[in-house]
Design brief:
The complex is a heterotrimer of chains A (about 170), B (about 350) and C (about 500).
Chain A: H1 5-26, H2 30-50, H3 54-82, H4 94-114, H5 129-137, H6 141-162
Chain B: H1 3-38, H2 54-64, H3 75-91, E1 102-103, E2 118-119, H4 129-150, H5 154-185, H6 190-196, H7 205-208, H8 210-223, H9 235-238, H10 248-272, H11 287-311, H12 317-346
Antiparallel strand pairs in B: 1-2
Chain C: H1 2-7, H2 12-30, H3 35-56, E1 62-64, E2 69-71, H4 73-92, H5 106-124, H6 129-147, H7 154-185, H8 190-198, H9 203-224, H10 232-239, H11 242-266, E3 269-271, E4 278-280, H12 284-303, H13 309-330, H14 333-364, H15 375-378, H16 380-394, H17 400-413, H18 420-445, H19 460-474, H20 480-489
Antiparallel strand pairs in C: 1-2, 3-4
Helix pairs in contact in C: 2-3, 2-5, 3-4, 3-5, 4-5, 4-11, 4-14, 5-6, 5-11, 6-7, 6-11, 7-9, 7-10, 9-11, 10-11, 10-13, 11-13, 11-14, 12-13, 12-18, 13-14, 13-17, 14-16, 14-17, 14-19, 16-18, 16-19
Classes of the chains: A mainly alpha (about 170), B mainly alpha (about 350), C mainly alpha (about 500).
């Protein structure tokens, strides 16, 4: 087994992802966690790109970085700076958490290395957008439509929770 | 990718990058002159002939100004924000074709592989072109949020919050307005979309996708926080919004990012809706003519932006949100519905 | 396109629900005066149509939507059950008789109810991991919102948040398990997965499948409130508006069991000579048996000391999940039938008990068991109905609850001596359960009230619904052979054939 350039790229992205994820969990201030999450998402997007999933990588940036995380920051900033709340996350019960996490890691590592995974035929990286579109309109039509119902309901729910209680 | 292609890409990067820089400094002057003209003033006309050297003077001034670091600011974020802004602003141009493909002339001094080579003035022709621009745009919000938060100033923070909420809301309309033209062209590539508009003038998306054009123009203006959507900076309320505390070169960088974003929007309007380098006459123009037409269109849009600034008052915050969510997004959504139906029954184009 | 045309006729209940959902949203958006009544009417119509359409589906078992869903008799049975439960909730638990929901907007509530029902149906007939995950998330997300419906109320919001957090972790574990399963088998389709696993497993891969089964069970366990994924249950049941609690205690749970059945019987089991000669591809029955024992024991023991009726019923519903799971553990035709019958009984008895709780809360404004003292004198009819529901929950003959317990225990016992200990634990648990249900009855009938309370007014509509639900706990026994025949006729899982 020799070390290829793509291995190096993979390691770099993996390091970004895992490293920033560690910061997310251990940072004392929520705002640092949120900003560190930004890099985690970037790392994951990079991994997608490395796997040839260009559409998913861009969507990842768009949705997680451009959407979800901004909202998260929004919430943290509004409560943190405007209301002088002290949003610190304490590291509590470090030892039990570490033991459980380590145990889980060992189990998953054993699983990962011992299991014979099914490896597909593989293919050269090519544009995926067209294919994804056809799959959504073909094989995965129902999940695609069901997701739209889910989004509608989520929208209703969000509006309902946010709206002030007034009318009958 | 061969070494030759890499070299060409490098040259393209340098050329496009500097073209943007030049256009940016030009725009600062043009904007002031045009605004002055609209307001029956003269504008800066002392530095050099017609004030042409004014941008240089501005640059030198900003360069030598004192760097102010506000007390209690988060240094990391304060430094990072302008960089994020400028990186995101310039990243978008990677997938934009700045003109039609053309053949290099053959000169004696050129190496063999360059003679008559077909060059597309585009750095990277990504399959997901528009999506990439959209994603990079989305990341650009962080610069503003970070700047607003890190400066430890209430006005900055409010500006940052406003700005992110605004960009967030209008990004939706912006993205939705693209869907129609993507469906018509059947591709995310900007180049393909331009080529889909070849032919007579009514093939332009301006006419085929008029609602999308209106939505994009408005959402694009909001996206770059130009008047009447400049609430994040609203100087009467927030001093200068998220960049209140910035000075010297960092201020210049933020300023530059804003202008570059504006230029990008103008370029995209020209490419996506105004037929790009097509003249709309039904025949293919020579590359140089096409390129000039493209530049003229970009110029017209830029002028339109300045014109807006000279004439319209600022929105109120609730009006802004109402307008984005209750008018633009429904229009864009209906446009998608209609376009999808037409494409399904009539085929693309 | 042919696939869509082929699938649509088997998809009518879901279409009816979706249409009703959209209409309710539109009606609510118009802001007309009659919108509340109209949305309720539309919901009832949509659910009734879906119920009729589910019962009317008699086509051959087949995959629909390119293998995303299956249409089979078992799916139809669960669809009818789930839609029926929603219909009862929509009609019996009105905004008028719930003190918590009174005065809140009805449009969203009904839209959410329809959406959860739709997602439940999708979950009950999912045949592909992608669809399964999406449907489960749909059920969860809509449930979160329903729990928070009582907004401005601290408990309701806290309950919703707890629900979200537990849900996120459980579904996270589940989707991780699914990704591993995909990595192992190269497919997300349950029949393909089963076919792959049937070809034999190496010891290493067997270990992986065990872990995968456990991880995926986290999602099902969360939906069915099985130990150790039950922690959200008491708090959510207590914090949510009672109609929502009643709904959550039956519908998503039933949907969770239906998909558990489908996944474990249809995905992780192989059959011998006959379709129902099942054996696990891995020995997952022991895993589920352990969980089942834990679930019923924890539920029953914790319920002993509860004084809040909603919490008590929450722990009781956890315990019942343990009994229902016996049907899965039995891994046989009778096990599946027992599970279905148990769920059928559970829906009517649990909804009945919650309806009584709602009405008492409307009248007296309390969920505290101690305040139920002397209820028999003030409302003898209500007490009598509650007695029927509680006896049914205990499993006393001649009530449907007994039939449910009878079938699951029988299904477990007939598997052989190695299952007898398990059956015994179940019986002991039923005895523990009888104690706290009897305690409720004792309070209502024997205990003297601390303070004199005004006479109990019970509107006719509520009385009718109470009577109907009580009757539903007794009457099915008169034509039991039909009920059993229905369950038997529904014993067909597509992937199991």
């Amino acid at each position: 087994m020799h070390f290829t350039a793509s291995d190096g790229v993979f390691l770099a992205f993996a390091a970004i992802t895992v490293g920033s994820a560690v910061v997310v969990t251990l940072a004392r201030s929520l705002i640092y966690s949120a900003f560190a999450l930004l890099f985690t998402f970037f790392g994951v997007a990079g991994l997608y790109l490395l796997l040839g999933a260009d559409f998913i990588a861009a969507s990842q940036l768009l949705i997680y970085v451009g959407g979800i995380l901004v909202l998260l920051l929004f919430g943290v900033m509004l409560t943190h700076k405007l209301y002088d709340l002290d949003l610190k996350s304490e590291v509590t019960q470090f030892a039990p958490a570490a033991i459980v996490a380590a145990g889980l890691f060992v189990v998953l590592a054993v699983l990962g290395f011992r299991t014979t995974w099914k490896i597909g035929p593989g293919r050269a990286p090519s544009a995926t957008t067209d294919e994804i579109g056809h799959l959504f309109m073909g094989q995965y039509l129902l999940p695609f439509e069901a997701a739209s119902v889910l989004l509608l309901v989520a929208l209703i729910g969000a509006a309902m929770i946010v709206r002030r209680k007034k009318e009958a | 990718m061969t070494l030759q292609a890499l070299l060409i890409a490098l040259v393209l990067i340098v050329v496009i990058f500097h073209a943007h820089l030049g256009l940016f400094s030009g725009m600062t002057l043009i904007e002031r002159r045009v605004l002055a003209f609209m307001q029956f003033r003269l504008g800066p006309n002392r530095t050099g002939p017609f004030g042409l050297l004014q941008p240089v003077a501005d640059g030198i001034k900003l360069f030598f100004k004192e760097e102010v670091m506000p007390e209690g600011a988060n240094k990391f974020g304060f430094f990072l924000a302008p960089m994020v802004a400028i990186v995101c602003a310039f990243s978008a141009m990677a997938v934009i074709p700045y003109g039609p493909a053309f053949h290099l002339p053959s000169f004696g001094f050129m190496p063999e592989w360059l003679r008559g080579r077909l060059i597309t003035p585009q750095i990277a022709d990504l399959e997901i072109g528009l999506l990439f621009i959209f994603a990079v745009n989305a990341v650009g919000v962080y610069a503003i949020v970070m700047a607003g938060w890190a400066a430890n100033n209430k006005f900055s923070l409010l500006g940052g919050l406003r700005s992110s909420a605004q960009m967030f809301s209008y990004e939706l309309a912006l993205g939705l307005s693209w869907v129609g033209i993507i469906m018509l062209a059947g591709s995310f590539k900007v180049g393909d979309i331009v080529e889909a508009q070849a032919g007579p003038i009514w093939k332009w998306n301006l006419f085929m996708q008029f609602p999308a054009f209106v939505v994009y123009l408005i959402a694009g203006t909001a996206e770059v926080s130009r008047l009447p959507f400049d609430l994040p900076e609203g100087e009467t309320e927030l001093v200068a919004g998220f960049h209140t505390e910035y000075s010297s070169m960092k201020f210049a960088l933020i300023q530059m990012a804003e202008y570059v974003n504006m230029i990008t929007v103008a370029v995209l309007v020209a490419l996506l809706f105004l037929g790009g380098w097509h003249l709309g006459l039904g025949f293919a123009a020579p590359p140089l003519v096409g390129f000039l037409a493209f530049l003229a269109k970009v110029g017209a849009i830029l002028f339109f932006f300045i014109w807006l600034r000279g004439t319209l008052p600022r929105f109120r915050y609730d009006q802004l949100m109402d307008f984005g969510w209750k008018i633009l997004i429904p229009i864009a959504a209906i446009n998608i519905l209609v376009t999808a139906g037409l494409v399904a029954f009539l085929g693309q184009r | 396109m042919p696939e869509v045309l082929k699938s649509l006729p088997r998809f009518l209940p879901e279409i009816a629900l979706t249409a009703a959902l959209l209409l309710v949203v539109l009606v609510d958006a118009t802001g007309i005066k009659a919108r509340n009544a109209l949305s309720r009417l539309l919901t009832a119509l949509g659910l009734a149509a879906a119920l009729a359409l589910s019962l009317a589906d008699h086509g051959v078992p087949s995959e629909t939507w390119s293998g995303m869903l299956v249409a089979d008799p078992m799916g139809s049975f669960f669809k009818a059950l789930l839609v029926g439960a929603s219909l009862v909730v929509a009609l019996a638990f009105t905004f008028r008789n719930s003190a918590e929901l009174h005065g809140l907007g009805q449009g969203e509530f009904h839209a959410l109810l329809l959406a959860v029902t739709l997602s439940n149906l999708l979950l009950a007939s999912a045949n592909d991991l992608a669809m399964l995950y999406l449907a489960l998330e749909m059920v969860s997300i809509t449930s979160y919102v329903m729990v928070a419906y009582f907004k401005g109320d601290r408990m309701s919001n806290e309950a919703s948040l707890k629900y979200v957090l537990f849900g996120a972790v459980s579904t996270g574990a589940m989707v991780y398990g699914m990704s591993l399963l995909y990595g192992l088998t190269g497919s997300t389709s349950l029949p393909t997965i089963r076919a792959f696993l049937s070809e034999g497993l190496t010891d290493q891969n067997r270990f992986a499948v065990y872990l995968i089964a456990l991880l995926i069970f986290a999602g099902f366990g969360f939906k069915t409130a099985a130990v150790p994924f039950h922690f959200w249950c008491p708090d959510v049941y207590q914090g949510a508006p009672t109609p929502v609690t009643a709904f959550l205690s039956v519908a998503p749970k039933a949907a969770g069991f239906s998909i558990m059945l489908r996944f474990f019987f249809g995905g992780l089991s192989s059959h011998g000579a006959t379709p129902w000669d099942l054996s696990g591809l891995i020995d997952w029955t022991w895993l589920l048996m352990l969980i089942s024992v834990l679930t019923m024991t924890v539920g029953n023991v914790a319920a002993l000391t509860q004084t809040n009726m909603k919490r008590l019923l929450a722990y009781s519903s956890i315990a019942h999940a343990g009994y229902v799971m016996m049907g899965v553990v039995a891994l046989s035709e009778n096990g599946a039938r027992a599970l279905m019958i148990y769920l059928l009984a559970y829906v009517v008895m649990n909804l009945g008990a919650f309806l009584v709780v709602t009405l008492v809360h409307k009248q007296d404004g309390t969920f505290d068991l101690r305040d139920y003292a002397g209820l028999s004198k003030r409302a003898p009819g209500l007490t009598f109905a509650m007695a029927i529901f509680l006896f049914s929950l205990m499993g006393i003959p001649p009530l449907v609850g007994f039939m449910g317990k009878f079938y699951v225990f029988a299904a477990v016992i007939e598997r052989g001596p190695s299952y007898w200990a398990y059956g015994t634990i179940g019986a002991v648990n039923a005895a523990i359960g009888a104690y706290y249900y009897a305690r409720v009855l004792k309070t209502m009938i024997i205990d003297e009230p601390h303070v004199e309370k005004p006479a109990f007014r019970l509107p006719t509509a509520d009385l009718a619904w109470i009577a109907a639900l009580a009757a539903a706990n007794i009457l099915p026994l008169l034509f039991w052979s039909r009920v059993e025949a229905w369950a038997r006729a529904s014993l067909s899982i597509y992937a199991g054939l």
